Automatic annotation (TrEMBL):
Superkingdom of source: Bacteria
Pfam families, per database record: Nitroreductase
Database matches in PANTHER family: IODOTYROSINE DEIODINASE 1, NADPH NITROREDUCTASE
Keyword entries, A-Z: Coiled coil, Flavoprotein, FMN, Oxidoreductase
This protein's record includes keyword Manganese: no
UniProt name for this protein: Nitroreductase domain-containing protein
Source species: Geosporobacter ferrireducens
Amino acid sequence: MELSEVINRRRTVRDFSQNKVPFKIIEKALRTGLKAPSYNHLKEWDFILVREDRHRLALTRTEEMIEEITNELEQAFKDYENLAKDMYLDAIPKQKRMILTAPELLIVVYKPKTQVSESKKIYDLNCLASVWCCIENILLSLAEDDVFGVTFIPKNTPGIKKIFSIPQQLEVAAIIPFGYKASHAKIIPQKEIQLESKLHINTW
Ligand SMILES: Cc1cc2nc3c(=O)[nH]c(=O)nc-3n(C[C@H](O)[C@H](O)[C@H](O)COP(=O)(O)O)c2cc1C
């Protein structure tokens, strides 16, 4: 498949069918992740595949997860652009369910040089930037095989590290529920951006 086709095919999916993802597709995606550029050349990334329901449940208990849209929540997004508002109101009540029921759940871990809370300049975030290159490679590889995911960014990473005995010096970048798309999966249209409005040559 052409790279451009894979890039166009990759979309965030939060509603999954229960069909199992063959392990060779997962392995290929993780190997593709490990091909990503890395600021320190060391690719200090690890992957945890969560296969136990009790661990999934524990993950959902590390932070508050809203399960239904309330008037208050709708109000909170009332001034957002329509596409962003539609996305949040679709996504927020699905967070817990996708963690509990997606066919596969991947936790991507990285080694920060500087802790995010102590970062003072963009350079200090290079490890985080690199692990996101890895994550995009994973998502593209999955999309090539018709498998899709969603990057969930957890708030309570110390709580997650405790559940999985992740070494103290490492950090959680994202949790990625993934699988084949449900037939009713809702895909919010992507925002169309005209390159001409974003490209600045020589000066702003
Ligand atoms: C850094 C980052 C954080 C995100 N966090 C979440 C999240 O916590 N929960 C969620 O459902 N989606 C999350 N997303 C997915 C975005 O909502 C999604 O990428 C966006 O709506 C655009 O849709 P697309 O991926 O289909 O192009 C995140 C995406 C990125 C890049």
